[in-house]
What does this fold into?
Amino acid sequence: FPVTIRFLERERREQEGAANIVVASSFCRKSFQDEEELFKKTVVVPYGVDPPFLLVGDARKYVLSKKPLCFLYVGNLGRHKGIDTLIQAWSQTRSLGGTLRVVGSGSEEIESKLQKLGVELAGQKPVEGVAKQMAEADVLVFPSYFEGFGRVILEAMAAGLAVITTTNTGGPDVMRDGEEGFLVPPGSVQALREKMEWMIQNREKTKKMGQKAHERAKGLTWVSYGKKYKSLLL
It folds into this structure.
């Protein structure tokens, strides 16, 4: 505990002495909202996306296919990622004809629940493997309760996927609700289910969302991130 206290005290002094505090999302910025002086100098600069995901989006054909709409979840299967919310929503949605694939790993209990619902478990993948999985999917579902940013959101957009994520992520900073996908309240099974159902029933519009997501992600590279960050140092 003494070490933790000293660390927090040092961090506090650094924040008070800084000209700007740079965070990756508006959700992170909210952590300073009770301290007016720190909040005023906190600046949001969203992260950038890596080229492999943009290449997937460039190669994608944004046309309706005969295959069922494929939802993709990428991340560990901890409960803070909203995996229980996804399990409940999917149990009410899967009869409509979509598919759900999960990239990541977790407890045997969670994996067993997913398998019983017919979810394909792809296991953990390196960057290239995740890009390949995204090339085969249509929608990223990322119902996390809290994320400092959630780079997988931007990676999926770059790869041409529509996105469903929560307001407690970097989603609100890189996508527009109803344009590149949907933003839902964390923990809301009903909201998540409704958006998944809408996408299954409106596949052509969902494809267009993915195309918009790819176009938007083109302007959110690490080069653009560097330029924004540099402007704060001048």
The longest helix spans residues 2-17. The chain has a mean pLDDT of 94.
